[in-house]
Amino acid sequence: MGRLLAVIFAGLTVFLIVVGTVHGSSTAPASTPDGAVQSMFANAKSHDWQGAYSYVANAGSVNLDSFIRDLTGRNGSLRTYSQLDSADTRVLHEAENEATVRTQLKYATAVGAWYDVKDLKVVKDEGTWKVQWPAEKEVNVPPQVIPVTYLRWDIVWRGAGDDWGAQNVENPNCRILSMNAVERDGGITIMGEVENEDTVPAFITVGAVLTDQSGKDVAEESSFDKISHVLLPKEITPYRIDFPGLKKSDVKSVRMTHNWMLVPASADPVIGVLHQQIQKDLTGRTVLTGELLNESGQTVNIPHVLATFYDNSGKVIWVADAYSDHALLPQTPQPFSVALRDDLAANVHSYRVTVNHYSLNRSE
Amino acid sequence: MRRLIFIIMAIAVCWFAEECARAAELQVPANAVAGQPLTITVSGGGTLYLIGPGQVIKREVKSGSVEIKGEELRGAGRWIATAGGQSQVFWVKPGKPENLSFLARPSRVPVARPNVMSGVAFVFDKYNNLVIDPTPVNFNLSVGGTGSARTVTSHEGVAWTNSSSAAKAGAANFVASAGGAEVKRVVQQVAADPCRLTMRVAGRTADRIIVETEPVRDCSGNPVPDGTIVTFIQTDKTGKSTVDSRIKKGIAHAELPASDNATITVAAGVVLGNELHVGGR
Predict the structure, then answer these.
(1) Which of B107, B226, B240 comes nearest A167 by C-beta?
(2) Domain total for chain B?
C-alpha cells in the first residue's frame, strides 16, 4: 500500500511539473478581429514572442526584435519593470477585410497598475485576421556632446570627535503653503503645496492625522508618490494624502505632520514640460497632456509627472500623477498624459506640472 | 567598686580627649582652587583619602603637611578629606577660564534678518569645571572683513548674545573668547529671496527659444545661490510649456518651444519676474 501511494504521488508531482512548465501557447489562425488581438496579447503575456509575432500583419516592416521591445520596453523604462496583466478588447469598426479594435492593456508595474489604450487596426490576410502593429519609432539620439554645468550638494555632518558645542548643519526650512481637505469617492483627501524656502536641498515627507469629535486620532497617512520628496531650493511640490472610507462629518480636525531633512542632491536633469493642454482622450476622459523634454544629457529612465490643479481663487483642488512607461532620452520629446477627474474639469482655472525623475545610473 | 568606676570614667575621659586631639590634627584649606597645589596638615600617621567629584586621591602620610599637586586636584566642588578616622569637608573652586563651549545657532541664515543668530558660551577652567564666577566673554561676528563685537559677562557660567545677520552673504565667523580660550563657529549667511527677477531672450534655433535671466540677486544685491529653482512659463496656442530651471553661475537658462506668438513669464518660488511676448503680430 505504501509503495502504491509513493508511485501515485511521484506521478502526480511529474504531472504538476509538466502542467506548470508547459505554457498554453496558441498560434491558431484568428477567425475574428478581436480574437487576433486577444491571441497576440495572450502569447505576449506568456512571453511566447514568436507566437505573438505570428499575429502581426506588417511583419515586413516590423521585425521581431523591435516588436518585443515595443512590448517589453526600452532603456530601463517603467515598461521594462512591468508584466502584461490583461488586454480588454472592443471592436470599434469592422468591415469585410479590416477592423479597428480598441484595446485596453493593463500592466502590473513596480508602482501599481499601468493602463494603455490602443486603437489597433486589424486586417484579414488569406482568410485570417492579423494585427497591423503600430511600431514605435525608435529614437536614436545622434552622437553629440551636451555640456552640462554639473551642480550638486554634498554634506559634511559633524563628527563623533567634535566638541559637543560644535553645531551641525541645520535641516532646511520648508513651509506648507496650503492645505485643502475635501471629501470625494467615499473618502477624505487632503492636498496642498510645500515650498523649500532654503538654499539647500530637502527631503520632505508630509502627512496628516485626523482626529474625531472626542479628540482621538482616527487615522494617519502620509503622501507617498503624490509628492516630490526631493526639493531643490525654492522648489514647490504638491502633495496629496488619501483617507479612504472616512467622512468629513466624522472628523473634527486635521493635524499636519512633516519632516524636512537635509540630503545630498543633484540639480540635474532639467525636464521641460511642453505644450500642456487639457483635453479628452480616446476613451472620452479628461486628461492633461503634453510632452516631456529632457534638456540634460543623461537618460531619465522613469519620469513621474505630478499635476496640480487650481480653481479661480488659486486654491489647490486636485493633485494627480502619472508615470510614463517610456524613458526620456536626451533632447527627445516624450508625450505624457495625466487623468483629471471629469467632475473637476470645469472648475480648473490653471494647473502646474512638475516632474520627478528616477535614473538608474545615479543615486539621487 | 568605687575605685573601679573611677578607673572606667578616667579611661573614657582619656579616650574622648584623645579623639578631640586627633580631630584637630586634620587641617584642610579654606580656599582651594582646581588645578592649584593644595596643602593638608595631618598630625599622626595613617592613610589620607581625598574624595572629590569623580576623583579619589590616596596618600600614605606621616605626621605633618601633605602637598597635593595642582594637576592632581582636577574636580571643582565638594571634597572630603579623611585620615585616621577623622574627616573634613572642603570646597574646591574652579580655576581661571581656559576652555569655552560655544553653541552658535543656526548654521545657515538669510542675510539682513534682525536677531536671527544666537551664541551661547559656557565658560570652563582647564579641567572643564564650569566657572561660575562672572567672567567677561567677547562675542565677535565678522563677514568679509566687517563685523561687530560685544562683551557679555557670564552668569552662573553661561554668557549669551543675539545678533542680526549682515547684509552681505558669505561665511560669517562667529567667535567667542574668554580668558585665553577662543572658539570659532561658521554661520553661513545666504542670500534672501530673489528681487527684481528679469529675463530676456538669449537666442533662437529652428525649434527652440532660449531664454535666460539676468544675474539673479536678492534685494541686498547678493547673488542667489546656484541650484535655486527658477520656473519659466510659456503660453501660446499649443498650450502651456514650463521649465523648472536651476540657477547656475548666477543665471537661469531654459529652452522653450519656438512659437510665433507666445507670452513667457518667470518666477522663483513665490517671487514673480517680468513677462515677455515673443513673435506677435
Answers:
(1) B107
(2) 3
Which residues are paired to A294 by β-bridges? A271, A330
Residue B62 shares a structural domain with residue B136 = no
Residue-level length of chain A: 364
Shared domain for B213 and B166, answered yes or no, is: no
Complex-level ipTM: 0.75
Looking at the partner chain, which of A170, A199, A355 has a beta carbon nearest the beta carbon of B228?
A199
Decide if B229 and A232 are in contact by the 8 Å CB cutoff.
yes
User: Cβ contact (<8 Å) for A273 and B243?
Assistant: yes
Q: Is the pLDDT of residue B44 over 80?
A: no
User: Could you report the per-residue pLDDT of B239-279, keeping only the tens digit for each?
Assistant: 899 999 999 999 999 999 998 889 999 998 778 999 999 87
User: B122 and A165 in contact by Cβ < 8 A?
Assistant: yes
Q: Show which of B47, B77, B93 is a domain's final residue.
A: B93
Report whether A153 contacts A160 (CB < 8 A): no
B254 → closest Cβ in A164, A267, A272 = A272
- pLDDT, averaged across chain B: 87
Say what the pLDDT of residue B18 is: 58
The reply to whether residue A290 touches residue B270, judged by beta carbons under 8 angstroms, is no
Please judge whether A272 and B270 are an interchain contact, meaning their C-beta atoms are less than 8 angstroms apart: no
The whole domain housing B233 covers 194-279
What is the distance in angstroms between the CA of the first residue and the CA of the last residue of chain B?
A: 139
Whether the CB of A277 is below 8 Å from some CB of chain B: the reply is yes
Q: Do domains A23-132 and A152-156+168-266 have the same CATH topology?
A: no
The shortest C-alpha distance from A29 to chain B (Å) reads 45
A234 touches chain B (CB under 8 A): yes
The answer to whether residues B155 and B214 belong to one domain is: no
Range in A159-173, A214-228, B41-55, B158-172 with the lowest mean pLDDT: A159-173
Q: What does the pLDDT average to over B168-186?
A: 89
One domain for residues B45 and B86: yes
**Which is the CATH superfamily of the domain at A152-156+168-266?**
Immunoglobulins (2.60.40.10)
CB contact under 8 A, A272 and B104: no
Distance (Å, whole) CA B28 – CA A210: 66
Domain A271-358 has CATH 2.30.30.90: no
Instruction: Output the pLDDT for position B281.
Output: 43
Q: B100: nearest CA in chain A?
A: A165
The confidence score (pLDDT) of residue A193 equals 96
Which of residues B190, B210, B243 is at a domain's end? B190
**Structural domain A23-132, CATH architecture:** Roll (3.10)
